[in-house]
Every structure is written in structure tokens, then in C-alpha cells.
């Protein structure tokens, strides 16, 4: 695996195409690795990036303490025969024009108002520097991948945005680098997040949606979770559901022991 440490260097490489990019902030887990595996199976070459993007963190968030495990990350990528690892220079996120995305004024965007601006701005730079044929994301960050797909379509960027299923721990908890802030017992407890949205999905009934959400919220609060949001929106554009909606996103964000965790389930339901 070739390690690339500057934008200048990456622009000098003649990649084999089709080329797939897997952008990450490191501290890799099986969710990230599932993207790399898919890319290896479906594209000629794969480049994974590791860059903790300062633009997507708020003032009181965990930018300075975000888990860093570069040595282990390199071993994991080598084991998957990833072709390239891009470690951008420290000033990679400087002097960029901030991009305002669509679909960012709901869900995570309400409590993290500058987050998706930061995500989209840095992804735009990655796509313009590397020019991959495909860029892969996990569906745990459903709002993020929807925002990026919309932007790429509007800007006519010639990169396919590929979204792959959520990878879960054995308990059902969605894999996330922030899970590392939690003890093993805490992680098992946090599986209640998924069981809650899964139960909501299985008993889904548009006519009793408010009461189902209320029951779920009460259950989570009694289990020690602080609720950021639990919402049901149109999965295609995150708008409020209407009588025409047939694809619903059940999305949740909670805080447990100061750790923010998100999850979601998509439900197909004909009204």
C-alpha cells in the first residue's frame, strides 16, 4: 500500500480506473472496512483517506480528543490490500470556500449547525483533488450521504456516490469510532437505541406515529439517554411526511455519558 502525504503528490499519480475513494477520519472499524472491501471487489484501485476534518466540528465538540489509531489503521488497510492511503497535509482544510448544503436544516443539522457545511466542503476538495469514479459512504450517516449525493448531482461532478448498509456490533449498536469512548457494558446498553428504532419500524403505522414516537422517547429517557431527536421524515429529502410518502426514515440521535450516537432505519410503507 502506497502512503501519500500531500496534495501535490496525489496529483502526480496516474491511478488505474475505475478508482474508488473511501474518505474517513481514521480510528477504523468494521464499518469503514466494509466500504474498503466493497471497493476492492468492484473497482480497479482503492484509495482510503484519513483526515480529521476541523471544519465539521463545533466549538464544544471532540476535535482535539477524536480517537487516533494510525498505526493500527495502516495494518487493517494493508490486510485488505488497499492500494493507497492518503494522509493530507495539516493545512488541507484551510482557505476553502465554505459550501452551504441542502437538507442540512433538520435532524443533525439543528444541533450541529455548521457540521454539514464542514463535511461537504472537505468532501468537495477530496473529489476535486483525487477525481475518483466512486466515493463510498455508510448509511449510518444517512443525512450526510444524502447531502453529498445532492451536491454531486447539482454540481455535475463525475463521481458516483455509493451508500452501503450500516454495519453493527453483535448487540445491534451501529458501529462508530465514538463507540470507543464507551465501556463494553455501556456499548451493550446502547444497543437499546437500535432495538428502539427497530421496534418502531416493525410496528410502523402512520396513523399512530406520534404515540409510537412518544413511547420510544419515554423508553429511551428511562434508560438513561438524552434525546437530541427522534424523527420520522421522508427518506428521499428529509422533509415532513405527507400522504404521498412511501419511503420513511426513522432517525435518532442520543447522548449517553457525553457520547453522541446516531442511528436510523428506512421503512417502506404504502399509505
Structure description:
The protein is of the alpha/beta class. The protein folds into two domains: 2-164, HUPs (Rossmann fold), CATH 3.40.50.620; 177-268, 2-Layer Sandwich (Pantoate--beta-alanine Ligase, Chain: A,domain 2), CATH 3.30.1300.10. It is built from nine helices and nine strands. It has helices at 7-11, 30-42, 70-79, 108-111, 115-130, 142-155, 184-189, 191-202, 209-222; strands at 2-4, 19-24, 45-50, 84-86, 134-138, 160-164, 226-234, 247-256, 259-268. The protein has a six-stranded parallel beta sheet, with helices on both faces. The longest helix has 16 residues, at 115-130.
In short:
The chain has 9 helices and 9 strands.
Number of domains: 2
Number of strands: 9
| Helix amount | 25-40%
Low-confidence stretches: none
Strand content: 15-25%
CATH class of the largest domain: Alpha Beta
Overall pLDDT metric: 97
Distance between the amino and carboxyl termini: 51 Å
Q: Any guess at the CATH architecture of the largest domain? A: 3-Layer(aba) Sandwich
Order of helices and strands: EHEHEHEHHEHEHHHEEE
What name does the CATH topology of the largest domain carry?
A: Rossmann fold
Amino acid at each position: 500500500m502506497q502512503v501519500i502525504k500531500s496534495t501535490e503528490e496525489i496529483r502526480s499519480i496516474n491511478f488505474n480506473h475505475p478508482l474508488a475513494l473511501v474518505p474517513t477520519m481514521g480510528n477504523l472499524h468494521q464499518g469503514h472496512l466494509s466500504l474498503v472491501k466493497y471497493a476492492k471487489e468492484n473497482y480497479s484501485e482503492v484509495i482510503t483517506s484519513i483526515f480529521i476534518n476541523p471544519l465539521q466540528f463545533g466549538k464544544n465538540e471532540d476535535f482535539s480528543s477524536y480517537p487516533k489509531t494510525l498505526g493500527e489503521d495502516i495494518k487493517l488497510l494493508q490486510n485488505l490490500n488497499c492500494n493507497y492511503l492518503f494522509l493530507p497535509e495539516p493545512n488541507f482544510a484551510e482557505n476553502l470556500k465554505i459550501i452551504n448544503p441542502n437538507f442540512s436544516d433538520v435532524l443533525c443539522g439543528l444541533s450541529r449547525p455548521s457540521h454539514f457545511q464542514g463535511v461537504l466542503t472537505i468532501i468537495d476538495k477530496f473529489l476535486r483533488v483525487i477525481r475518483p469514479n466512486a466515493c463510498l459512504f455508510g448509511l449510518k450517516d444517512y443525512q450526510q450521504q444524502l447531502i453529498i449525493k445532492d451536491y454531486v448531482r447539482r454540481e455535475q461532478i463525475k463521481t458516483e456516490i455509493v451508500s452501503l448498509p450500516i454495519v453493527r456490533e453483535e448487540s445491534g449498536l451501529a458501529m462508530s469510532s465514538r463507540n470507543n469512548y464507551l465501556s463494553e457494558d455501556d456499548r451493550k446498553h446502547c444497543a437499546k437505541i437500535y432495538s428502539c428504532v427497530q421496534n418502531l419500524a416493525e410496528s410502523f403505522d402512520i396513523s399512530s406515529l406520534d404515540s409510537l414516537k412518544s413511547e420510544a422517547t419515554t423508553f429511551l429517557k428511562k434508560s438513561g439517554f438524552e434525546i437530541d431527536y427522534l424523527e420520522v421524515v421522508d427518506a428521499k429529502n428529509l422533509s415532513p411526511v405527507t400522504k404521498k410518502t412511501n419511503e420513511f426514515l426513522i432517525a435518532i440521535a442520543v447522548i449517553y455519558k457525553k457520547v453522541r450516537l446516531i442511528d436510523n432505519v428506512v421503512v417502506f410503507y404504502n399509505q
